[in-house]
UniProtKB/TrEMBL annotation:
Residues 3-82 form the ATP synthase F1 complex delta/epsilon subunit N-terminal domain. GO terms for molecular function: proton-transporting ATP synthase activity, rotational mechanism. It is a peripheral membrane protein. This is ATP synthase F0F1 subunit epsilon. It is found in: Cell membrane. Belongs to the ATPase epsilon chain family. Its main location: membrane. It comes from Microbacterium testaceum (Aureobacterium testaceum). It comes from the Bacteria. Keywords: ATP synthesis, CF(1), Ion transport, Membrane, Transport. GO terms for cellular component: plasma membrane; proton-transporting ATP synthase complex.
Amino acid sequence: MSLRVSLVSADAEVWTGEASLVVAKTVEGEIGFMQGHEPVLAILAQGEVRITRTDGSKILANAEDGFLSMANDELTIVAGNAALVS
């Protein structure tokens, strides 16, 4: 099973897809999300968002100024500024 993940910035969708693991930085510290995680609403801190896709490949993005919401195996990360790292 997997998470449905959406990473969006103020002006564009940065990445959407299925993932087995997502690690993001919040003002409380780093937090990891997998399928079945309890509901969470947190303030996003400046830092990396690390996404492990279901095929094992990894995606790295920088994000800041926003929030994340996890419920029912759907993780939404809304950032004022976010971009994939190439």
